[in-house]
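Troubleshooting log. The previous run stalled partway through. Resubmitting the same two chains, unchanged.
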Amino acid sequence: MKHSSALSPNMSFATARLPAGRSRRAIRLRRHARAYVFLVPSITILVVFVGYPIVQSFWMSLHNWSFFATVQPYVGLQNYENLWHDSRFWGDLRNTAIYTGTVVPLQVCLGLALAVALQRNTSINKFFRSVYFFPVISSLATMGIVWKFLLDPTIGIITHAMVAVGLPDIDFLESTTWALPAVILVGVWKGVGFSMVIFLAALQDVPESLLEAATLDGAGPWARFRRVVLPGLRPSLLFSSVIATIASMQLFDSVYVMTGGGPIFHTETLVTYIYLEAFDYSQPGYAAALSWVLFVLILGISMLQLRLFRYAEVN
Amino acid sequence: MVLAAERKRVRRKAAISDVPAWARRGGWWWGLSRWTKWALLLGGAVIIILPFLWMLGASFKPESDIFGYPLRLQPTHPTFANYVGIWHELPFFRLLVNSVVFAGGVTVCSVFFDSLAAYALARLRFPGRTLAFYLVLATLMVPFQVTLVPLFQLLFKMHWLNTYQGLIVPRATSAFGIFLLRQFFITIPRELEEAAQAEGASEWYIYSRIMLPLAKPALATLAVFYFMTNWNDFLWPLVVTSTTNMRTLPAGLTLFAGEYVVEHGVLMAGALISLLPLAVAFALAQRYFTQGIATTGLKG
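Second attempt completed without errors. Output:
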């Protein structure tokens, strides 16, 4: 980045002339041109398929947009105002918040416990690690089908096992009380291995000498964990929870497959609503406004997490 | 020296005696907590693999077996019928091909384009480099859903909806991949290229013969990451494709599951086959999966 200042734009054409007859400026231009060639594919794709759609998305949110119309009526902030009065939006926001607020702490804490328990490189530990990691490589949509069958009142092995041990017979995915917890369970199931792997990598970097010193100073296992290991894990705690939060707030696959947002919107999330507004109800302007609200929420919460962790570091 | 060692010994003794007798290694508490730990680990592992086990069992069950009572994981009358049926009851072969083309295409293009851009940003000098770098970083922050709606319209106008290029091209590079590889390229010592440059090697030669071979582990990690996320992706293929013969595996299987025309066993056979490539790759190159997650973790 600093090197761009090394280029001197005021070098005159005449003095730069080389014995070979080619100006240095021409050589430099050529070198720049070759650098741009390396960048062209990526920058073109990013501008056309990411940059332009971001701007367009905001533009759409200011219109009563329809996909196939020639005239798009400008409505200003009307879409955002409608959102504010849309109880379905608030319900979806609530569901997304509950999902994120439970999945992220559960996933991070269980992942940390697993990493600590499976830290040593024994073959049995390696086996357990692979098992816990396996859901991470599976497709949430496809496994959503399987979970739906597991929780089914007629063929569901979980439902039957619950009845067999005397628990109530619950149709999880049709129950307004239990559908969201079921989706949360699948979220934790899918994500716990992800956090575990991050913590396993970080645990390797906790210096052995520090732990030994702490033992010598009379620190028990718990004190060693709290005072030595945990501070060392702070960056990965932050990383793991920020990533898990962003992914949770964008939840779509398992909800779409398992409940379709039902029963009566009790599992509908913000992204499910964006999808439906845009592609089922043909309200792309409204969907775009929704997506900007999601963006601002994600950005705000990520900033907050960063800030909180930094405070913790100072104290 | 002797004194120091003696002090150390005494202190270590003191440290051990801080732990009450019942909690020491070999005490009853120690034994109990060990057993609890393993019981919990095992219980958790059972919950984790239950869906996979059920899927495996159901894929070998005739439909009557799935509804049979009492319910069990393993089939009572094992059958291969579901694995035969899958190919003609669903356009399964087509879904499989689409998934390979989509995930494979995105992976190949992305790794190639990302590495080109990353090399330029890490090593070449040109006006606007800082700007280009920040531009790339800025797109990293915006969630994919923000671009989804306008992208659909853009692909519609380009007549790219329901095509392979529509699926692949918008994903053929990612800010995240460029950023990751750039960070890797910066760590490669400059001496190697400088020697090549002194002998008049071109940028292309340096990129393809020096940088790429050195970056193999990073490229493999990124490739595994791209293949996995796109193979498993659901929302993007769901939006871009509209006919059954263009769907990828997750989107296709899910829609068939919703229609209830397909038998459960057939669907589970399909789910299992769609899991297989990643499961095999995971067994062979676990390192790249966990590395990819530990260093990257970003999705979408």
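Takeaways: Residues 2-61 of chain A form one domain. Chain A touches chain B through 98 residues (CB under 8 Å).
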